[in-house]
Amino acid sequence: MSLAAIERKIIALEGEMLAAVTREDFETAARLRDEITALKGGAVRQPPPGEMGLGTQVPVVEPPKGWKRPKKPDLMTNVKPRKR
């Protein structure tokens, strides 16, 4: 597709998006917005499964190298053992 054709397509999609908003069809408007963004070259990258945290938009953070999980406390006494 040539650059001029892409520009014409973007203008047409923006008109359709505006019409969808005026008739309160927001799902269609959002789809058109995403299509316009993709044509402009700013497509939203969908991360592969497992890259994102559950229910968030924040990537899962890797622990620092050499980090060890702390010992679990004794649930029967909830008291730290004394050092001798």
Word description of this protein:
With 84 residues, the chain is an all-alpha fold. The chain has helices at residues 3-22, 26-40.
Number of distinct helices: 2
Average predicted local confidence, pLDDT: 78
Task: Give the total of beta strands.
Answer: 0
Helical content stands at: 40-55%
Largest sheet properties: none
Radius of gyration: 26 Å
Summarize the structure.
The protein has 84 residues and is an all-alpha fold. It is built from 2 helices and no strands.
Salient structural properties:
84 residues, 42% helix, mainly alpha, 2 helices, 0% strand, single chain
Write the layout of secondary structure elements.
Layout: H1 3-22, H2 26-40
